């Protein structure tokens, strides 16, 4: 049928249409087709000196808006319609492309470690480690290797909070000149189970219960404790998980561990076992449970924000990589099996040797492209590093690659920029969804003559598995030493400070109080009796039950060559006294001395502390000795987000704050969470109003700015805590 020419519009209709079009344009003044003057991305695209530079970094500064296939888009506000008030047209490929892409923006979240946060940086080798490994990134003094690190919680979903009681993931990807090497570790050196066969059961037990989808990001529920109380091998890990280790204050003050025993292999093909340790230069720092629970509401992004803001402020998180290297002959003599991931190697048996440092100095440009799409895997090894026969590790070698196939949509996820190795990959693998590489030539097989035999095998320079001799029958079972589930749990308990032991007791009490089935509580207590009767008694007291009989043991004789290991206590690593990046609140109100406020601000800022002056409301006000212009309000900044608090001099200011419940609550929480508090001059009267009594023994109750900063460097005075807390 011939297309009907549209009737010429009458003049008045055309005028109405033009006016309507103008009105639409006026409503969207930013709908400009002029190039933007600057691009937001441009300032952030300066990678650190050794950071991995992605060729695919995209910066839209100065660019025109286009479709995915490059056609310039004239109007990004309106869909194509038959008349201003008419129906939208199917032909609008621009609208359909935009909506279709949006519909597919989400990928499956990680089954565990879904919530995480990452950063770029570098690893720097101290001295060549060629005696023990031929790994290239450990081969020369000062050699730098780019890294990407992702920290995570384990149980919570992607949108959950940062600070539940949970193990933290600490996964590092080294982009070495011989390919990527990943240490996919945790902030706890042991694990719940000994064999990968039990991993899906463990994860199903800890995740929200399947019938009602609760609780989120928490192990304090029946299914978790049901499972672990039936799996006595989890006892050692439970001790760590109920301790302050599971409540790190932030990522930059926690340790990391490779957990399993790995192998190092040198150029002479000699092999030794190794355990990987990350030790934070800022020292270890953990939180109080009450504080972390409040933080989940106050700032669910607390740890993510801390990492981001520290890096933006130039306070670069730093760790030392330490190795525990030991021979197979040594391992044979240990009372425990080094292939059992529920055991650690006490530092008294094998010291930790620092071999390099890692500095995180650049935030990602794009959370999804980098932090979400990064794919870690224990199978990413480089020549000079190899596996041990740990059966938990064996399952992981399969699981990580396998899970990425569905999470990242196919076998080419290694080409996503954050996952791609520095050196170009060369092999005969071809095609598949999302293939980026354009392989040239007609040869995709080996051996070949048409391609000159390329790519050819690396021979002795390539990765060669350590030829460990094998014997034994094909069996399902465990070696004998795996049966000792308690010796190292007891070692951990005995190595804690009294306040750390008190926190462990509270952790067990809290979790088991949430458990609703009495038999599960009882079974857990019977397990704890094998760790320490003292611990079991204190937990039982809190639960209001009698102590049950100890759980029968396969190997009742405690086996450990070390009775106490001080390194297992968080107090062993106070840090280097650096207070940079710590956050301190200065509470003010009309009547606070402005000179005292300015002086304390200046002194704290000089030490690199992030200071926030908080008042009852915003807006500058005239006060004693000058004007005070608060940064924010008490209402908006809960106490738990700060590492310490200062009340400047000024009697009237202290009195005004004392009349304010928020100020008193603020101080009570600072006190309860064992943080440094300073009352300068008359400011100290506010402390008394909050029920905080003067105590000469409490080194974290300061009366000068200098003593406050010194206390801040020591993190917290846990000795102050009483059970139940007085405030
Ligand atoms: Fe795992 C993720 C650490 C046992 C299977 N694991 C994952 C991540 C970390 C760990 C840090 C997050 C990586 C990231 O940031 O993307 N996992 C550990 C440690 C373990 C451990 C220290 C014990 C020593 N894991 C473990 C076992 C299995 C898995 C025994 C399976 C047999 N883990 C996975 C996984 C994940 C994962 C399902 C989820 C998302 C991913 O791998 O990429 O494959």
UniProtKB/TrEMBL annotation:
It is an enzyme of class 1 (oxidoreductase). GO terms for cellular component: cytosol. Its cofactor is heme. GO terms for biological process: hydrogen peroxide catabolic process; response to oxidative stress. PROSITE patterns: CATALASE_2, CATALASE_3. Keywords: Heme, Hydrogen peroxide, Iron, Metal-binding, Oxidoreductase, Peroxidase. Its EC number is 1.11.1.6. Residues 66-454 form the Catalase core domain. It catalyses: 2 H2O2 = O2 + 2 H2O. It comes from the Bacteria. The keyword Iron applies. Heme binds at residues 110, 150, 199, 396, 400, 407. Pfam families: Catalase, Catalase-rel, Catalase_C. One of its GO terms (molecular function) is heme binding. InterPro entries: Catalase (IPR018028), Catalase_AS (IPR024708), Catalase_clade2 (IPR024712), Catalase_clade2_helical (IPR043156), Catalase_core (IPR011614), Catalase_immune_responsive (IPR010582), Catalase_large_C (IPR041399), Catalase_sf (IPR020835). Residues 31-61 are annotated as: Disordered. The keyword Iron applies. SUPFAM superfamilies: Class I glutamine amidotransferase-like (SSF52317), Heme-dependent catalase-like (SSF56634). The active site is at residues 113, 186. Decomposes hydrogen peroxide into water and oxygen; serves to protect cells from the toxic effects of hydrogen peroxide. Belongs to the catalase family. HPII subfamily. This is Catalase. The lineage of its organism: Bacteria, Pseudomonadati, Pseudomonadota, Betaproteobacteria, Nitrosomonadales.
């Amino acid at each position: 049928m011939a297309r009907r020419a549209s009737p010429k519009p009458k003049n008045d209709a055309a005028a109405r249409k033009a006016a309507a079009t103008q009105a639409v344009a006026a409503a969207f003044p930013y709908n400009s087709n002029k190039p933007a003057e600057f691009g937001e991305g441009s300032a952030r695209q300066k990678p650190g000196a050794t950071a991995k530079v992605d060729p695919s970094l995209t910066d839209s500064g100065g660019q025109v808006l286009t479709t995915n296939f490059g056609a310039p888009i004239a109007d990004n506000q309106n869909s194509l319609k038959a008349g201003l008030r008419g129906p939208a047209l199917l032909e609008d490929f621009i609208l359909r492309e935009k909506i279709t892409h949006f519909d597919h923006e989400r990928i499956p979240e990680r089954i565990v470690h879904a919530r995480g946060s990452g950063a770029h940086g570098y690893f720097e080798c101290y001295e060549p480690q060629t005696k023990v490994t031929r790994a290239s990134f450990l081969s020369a003094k000062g050699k730098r290797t780019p890294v990407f690190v992702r920290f995570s919680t384990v149980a919570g979903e992607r949108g959950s909070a940062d600070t539940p009681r949970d193990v933290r993931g600490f996964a590092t990807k080294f982009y070495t000149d011989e390919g990527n090497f990943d240490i996919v570790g945790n902030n706890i050196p042991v694990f719940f189970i000994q064999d990968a066969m039990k991993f899906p059961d463990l994860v199903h037990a800890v995740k929200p219960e399947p019938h009602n989808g609760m609780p989120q990001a928490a192990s304090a529920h029946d299914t978790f404790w049901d499972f672990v109380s039936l799996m006595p091998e989890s006892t050692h890990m439970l001790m760590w998980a109920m301790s302050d280790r599971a409540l790190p204050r932030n990522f930059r003050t926690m340790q990391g561990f490779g957990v399993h025993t790995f192998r190092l292999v040198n150029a002479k093909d000699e092999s030794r076992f190794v355990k990987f340790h990350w030790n934070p230069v800022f020292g270890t720092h953990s939180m109080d449970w009450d504080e972390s629970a409040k933080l989940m509401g106050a700032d669910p992004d607390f740890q993510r924000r801390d990492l981001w803001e520290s890096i933006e402020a130039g306070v670069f998180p730093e760790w030392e990589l330490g190795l525990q290297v030991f021979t197979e002959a040594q391992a044979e003599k240990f009372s425990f099996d080094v292939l059992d991931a529920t055991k650690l190697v006490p530092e008294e048996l094998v010291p930790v040797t620092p071999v390099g440092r890692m500095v995180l100095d650049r935030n990602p440009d794009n959370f999804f492209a980098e932090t979400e799409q990064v794919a870690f895997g224990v199978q990413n090894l480089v020549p000079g590093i190899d596996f041990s026969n740990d059966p938990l590790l064996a399952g992981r070698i399969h699981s990580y690659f396998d899970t990425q196939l569905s999470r990242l949509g196919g076998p080419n996820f290694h080409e996503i920029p954050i996952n791609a190795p520095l050196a170009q990959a060369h092999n005969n693998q071809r095609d598949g969804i999302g293939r980026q590489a354009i392989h040239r030539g007609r040869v995709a097989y080996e051996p070949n003559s048409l391609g000159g035999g390329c790519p050819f095998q690396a021979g002795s320079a390539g990765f060669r598995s350590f030829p460990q001799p094998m014997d034994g029958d094909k069996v399902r079972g465990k070696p004998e030493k795996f049966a000792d589930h308690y010796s190292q749990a007891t070692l951990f308990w005995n190595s804690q400070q009294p306040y750390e032991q008190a926190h462990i007791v509270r952790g067990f009490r809290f979790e088991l109080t949430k458990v609703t089935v009495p038999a599960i509580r009882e079974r857990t207590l019977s397990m704890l009796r094998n760790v320490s009767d003292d611990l079991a008694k204190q937990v039982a007291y809190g639960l209001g039950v009698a102590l049950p009989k100890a759980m029968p043991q396969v190997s009742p004789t405690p086996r450990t060559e070390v009775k106490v290991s001080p390194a297992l206590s968080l107090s062993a690593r106070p840090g280097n006294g650096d207070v940079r990046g710590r956050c301190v609140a200065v509470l003010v109100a009309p009547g606070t001395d402005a000179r005292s406020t300015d002086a304390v601000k200046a002194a704290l800022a000089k030490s690199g502390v992030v200071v926030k002056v908080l008042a009852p409301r915003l807006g500058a006000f005239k006060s004693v000795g000058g004007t005070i212009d608060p940064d924010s309000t008490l209402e908006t900044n809960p106490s738990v987000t700060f590492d310490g608090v200062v009340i400047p001099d000024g009697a009237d200011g202290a009195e005004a704050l004392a009349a304010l419940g928020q100020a008193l609550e603020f101080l009570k929480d600072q006190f309860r969470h064992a943080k440094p508090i300073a009352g300068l001059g008359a400011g100290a009267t506010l402390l008394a109003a909050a029920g905080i009594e003067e105590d000469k023994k409490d080194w974290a109750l300061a009366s000068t700015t200098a003593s406050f900063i010194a206390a801040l460097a020591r993190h917290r005075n846990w000795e102050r805590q009483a059970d139940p807390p007085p405030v």
